[in-house]
């Protein structure tokens, strides 16, 4: 294997000021966490980029596959190295570019950066030497100085020569954990995992909360939500899922509130429960997958009535998004196929035939006042189950059959 390390470019992190080192440290920790299964990793973090040493082909394959999913990484490049000998450098460059030989006509250039100024050839001389060797051997290459399809980058450092050609785009954004913690209301549908993904991209660490209403919702529906929570961990951090026993509360709303306002009142109870969990875990906000006008409970009037139960910031990253755009992101991040599994969640049961799209807050408060919901809310919060993803793999006991 010719590659010795992977170069990680920071992207947006590069614009940070005095606290830049804190963001870089967070990214390094997230990379270590994401690749705990192939630990240890040798990581060298510098001000403008990071290097991950490659120990074998197996680790290289895993890193190249999963690093682009880690938020805070703008792009990655596998890097090869050799001694400071021109013939050896030319041979290495040929090896690196071999993958491009059969890809049709491509534009090409050589970039040189000389940290070691004692190297006998200056930048332009080294570019000419390498170009004169490579172009006759790759007839599909045509020189283009600005924005070529392939750029062979050569770095002349103090210890050796380093080369790279491939640039793989990363997820961008900010390292998870650099912008606090929020609580995601994870329903099991298409929208809420996408909302969680977008918040993670801005550096937010997520807990998730799910409202489970057996026997009206099945274990299959809960398992779907667990799979979605696990999917979100591939972007660089674990996710705690708080499963709320919601049947008692949901039935109480159904009995106390007129059918056409029950949806609004149910969402208000969810928000009250979520806010108590948020307070317990020290999260700074609540995230939902709501998109303005998508359903009856997501009109501006409905959202106003729901928001009334808390002063906590409610973050709605999809508020202006079209459904087709949300579906596209869901497919891109790998949650769509899980989300469309046909298992009902609590939001789809007891659904009124003609829900109020413009509920009056004073009327909702009036009907809720006849039932003592606070005790039910406290009990739901107290009796919740917490699951951590990804789940740790339990090593199989090879002597178990002998006991």
Keywords:
403 residues, alpha/beta, nine-stranded mixed β-sheet, six-stranded mixed β-sheet, 15 strands, 19% strand, elongated, THUMP_dom, Probable tRNA sulfurtransferase, ThiI_N, ATP-binding
The best one-word shape is: elongated
What is the number of helical segments per DSSP (H or I, 4+ residues)?
Answer: 13
- Rg for CA atoms: 27 Å
- What's the average pLDDT? 90
Beta-strand segment tally: 15
> Cα distance, first to last residue?
45 Å
Low-confidence stretches: none
How much strand content do the residues show? 15-25%
- Structural class of the helix and strand makeup? alpha/beta
Largest sheet: 9 strands, mixed
- SSE pattern, N- to C-terminal: EHEEHEHEHEEEEEHEHEHHEHEHHHHE
Percentage of residues assigned to helices: 25-40%
Describe the structure.
Keywords: ATP-binding, Cytoplasm, Nucleotide-binding, RNA-binding, Thiamine biosynthesis, Transferase, tRNA-binding. With 403 residues, the chain is α/β, with parallel strands linked by helices. It has 13 helices and 15 strands. Strands 1, 2, 3, 4, 5, 6, 7, 8 and 9 form a nine-stranded mixed β-sheet that branches. Strands 14-13-10-11-12-15 form a six-stranded mixed β-sheet, sandwiched between helices. It starts with a strand and ends in a 14-residue tail after the last strand. The relative contact order is 0.12.
Gist of the model:
Keywords: ATP-binding, Cytoplasm, Nucleotide-binding, RNA-binding, Thiamine biosynthesis, Transferase, tRNA-binding. Belongs to the ThiI family. The chain is 36% helix and 19% strand.
């Amino acid at each position: 294997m010719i590659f010795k390390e992977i170069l990680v470019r920071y992207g947006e992190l590069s614009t940070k000021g005095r606290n830049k080192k804190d963001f870089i440290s967070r990214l390094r920790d997230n990379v270590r966490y994401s690749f705990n299964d192939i630990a240890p990793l040798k990581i060298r973090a510098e001000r403008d980029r990071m290097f991950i040493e490659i120990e074998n082909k197996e680790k290289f394959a895993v890193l190249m596959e999963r690093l682009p999913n880690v938020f805070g990484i703008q792009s990655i490049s596998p890097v090869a190295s050799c001694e400071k000998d021109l013939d050896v450098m030319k041979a290495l460059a040929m090896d690196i570019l071999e993958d491009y030989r059969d890809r049709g006509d491509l534009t090409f250039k050589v970039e040189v950066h000389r940290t070691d100024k004692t190297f006998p050839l200056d930048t332009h001389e080294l570019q000419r030497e390498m170009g004169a060797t490579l172009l006759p051997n790759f007839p599909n290459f045509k020189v283009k100085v600005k924005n070529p399809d392939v750029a062979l980058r050569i770095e002349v450092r103090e210890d050796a020569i380093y080369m790279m050609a491939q640039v793989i785009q990363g997820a961008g954004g900010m390292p998870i954990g650099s912008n606090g913690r929020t609580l995601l209301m994870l329903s099991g549908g298409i929208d809420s995992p996408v909302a969680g993904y977008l918040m993670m991209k801005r550096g937010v660490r997520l807990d998730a909360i799910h409202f489970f209403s057996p026997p009206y919702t099945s274990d299959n529906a809960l398992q779907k939500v667990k799979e979605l929570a696990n999917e979100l961990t591939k972007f660089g951090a674990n996710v705690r899922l708080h499963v709320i026993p919601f049947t008692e509360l949901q039935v109480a709303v159904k009995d106390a509130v007129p059918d056409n306002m029950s949806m609004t009142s149910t969402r208000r109870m969810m928000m009250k429960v979520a806010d108590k969990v948020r307070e317990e875990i020290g999260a700074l906000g609540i995230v939902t997958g709501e998109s303005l006008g998508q359903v009856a409970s997501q009109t501006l009037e409905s959202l106003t009535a729901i928001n009334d139960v808390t002063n906590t910031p409610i973050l709605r990253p999809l508020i202006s998004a079209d459904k087709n755009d949300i579906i596209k992101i869901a497919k891109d991040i790998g949650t769509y196929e899980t989300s469309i599994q046909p298992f009902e969640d609590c939001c789809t049961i007891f659904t009124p035939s003609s829900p109020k799209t413009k509920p009056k807050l004073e009327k909702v408060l009036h009907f809720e006042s006849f039932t003592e919901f606070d005790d039910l809310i406290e009990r739901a919060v107290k009796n919740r189950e917490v699951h951590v993803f990804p789940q740790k793999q339990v090593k199989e006991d090879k002597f178990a059959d002998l006991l």
